[in-house]
């Protein structure tokens, strides 16, 4: 399974190194959020990796909602129920919750469908910045702090009409931003398609912190820095310095 290199199993528990979490963010999601850098002071495992593992272990349901309630650090051992009910959580040994999961409808454990949908969603999710968030910030004339960009995964939901589908793809269908002082909640909407037919919808929500007045020059520098970081990573990777 393509996820195997990005987490470890210790008995019935799962856990992550910084290398695994950062590698998934960059190599699978194409996500260069500084929170997923190896040397990040506030390093956290990507929420999309937790989403991917939950689907691989517990199956894909027609209707699912993931609410991220805590940041997973490297080395934390997490528990997933062996038999997942309609409502369950990913927790540590102290019963601290990191992800609440709700699901309804039919369930599929067909490996190729889960892999294809996971890859499609993670690609969409990982490209939120700068592809979607920068135009959204521009439209609302606000921006995150370029010196400390804080964009935190809040939740995601998916609603499929049926599960007898193949090669699903995601298409962005619009976004919105709710503002509350120096915080904001961005919602990115998508449709799920197979063979050109819409077979489902969903959304991703993120919390934006440290908001301030929009400054195009600072935004350009932030995007340039993000792209340079990405190019540097893949330059090192292609040279063999990163496995």
Largest sheet: number of strands, sense, barrel closure: 7 strands, antiparallel
Total strands: the figure is 12
What multimeric state do the chains show?
A: single chain
Radius of gyration: 18 Å
Q: Helical proportion?
A: 25-40%
Give the integer mean of the pLDDT values: 92
Structural descriptors:
31% helix, alpha+beta, 3-stranded antiparallel beta sheet, 243 residues
Provide the fold topology:
Blueprint: E1 8-10, E2 13-15, H1 18-27, H2 47-58, E3 60-68, E4 78-79, E5 87-91, E6 97-108, H3 111-126, H4 128-140, E7 142-143, E8 150-160, E9 169-180, E10 183-194, E11 197-209, E12 212-213, H5 216-239
Antiparallel strand pairs: 1-2, 2-4, 3-6, 3-8, 5-6, 7-12, 8-11, 9-10, 10-11
Structural summary, described in words:
The chain is of the alpha+beta class. It contains five helices and twelve strands. It has helices spanning 18-27, 47-58, 111-126, 128-140, 216-239, and strands at 8-10, 13-15, 60-68, 78-79, 87-91, 97-108, 142-143, 150-160, 169-180, 183-194, 197-209, 212-213. The strands form three sheets. Strands 5-6-3-8-11-10-9 form a seven-stranded antiparallel beta sheet. Strands 1-2-4 form a three-stranded antiparallel beta sheet, with no helix packed on it. The longest helix has 24 residues, at 216-239. Residues 239-243 have low confidence and may be disordered.
């Amino acid at each position: 399974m393509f996820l195997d290199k990005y987490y470890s199993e210790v008995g019935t528990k799962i856990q992550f190194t910084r290398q695994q979490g950062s590698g998934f963010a960059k190599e699978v999601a194409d996500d260069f959020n500084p929170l997923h850098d190896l040397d990040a002071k506030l390093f956290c495992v990507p929420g999309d990796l937790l989403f991917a593992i939950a689907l691989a272990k517990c199956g894909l349901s027609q209707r699912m909602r993931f609410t991220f309630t805590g940041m997973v650090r490297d080395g934390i051992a997490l528990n997933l129920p062996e038999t997942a009910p309609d409502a369950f959580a990913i927790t540590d040994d102290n019963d601290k919750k990191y992800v609440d999961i709700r699901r309804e409808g039919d369930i599929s454990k067909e490996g190729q469908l889960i892999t294809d949908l996971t890859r499609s969603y993670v690609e969409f999710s990982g490209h939120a910045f700068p592809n979607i968030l920068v135009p959204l910030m521009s439209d609302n004339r606000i921006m995150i702090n370029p010196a400390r960009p804080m964009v935190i995964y809040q939740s995601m939901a998916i609603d499929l009409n049926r599960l007898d589908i193949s090669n699903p793809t995601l298409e962005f269908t619009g976004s919105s931003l709710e503002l509350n002082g120096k915080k904001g909640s961005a919602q990115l909407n998508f449709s799920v398609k197979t063979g050109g037919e819409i077979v489902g919808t969903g959304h991703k929500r993120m919390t934006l912190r440290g908001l301030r007045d929009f400054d195009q020059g600072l935004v350009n520098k932030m995007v340039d820095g993000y792209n340079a970081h990405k190019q540097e990573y893949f330059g090192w990777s292609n040279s063999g310095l990163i496995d």
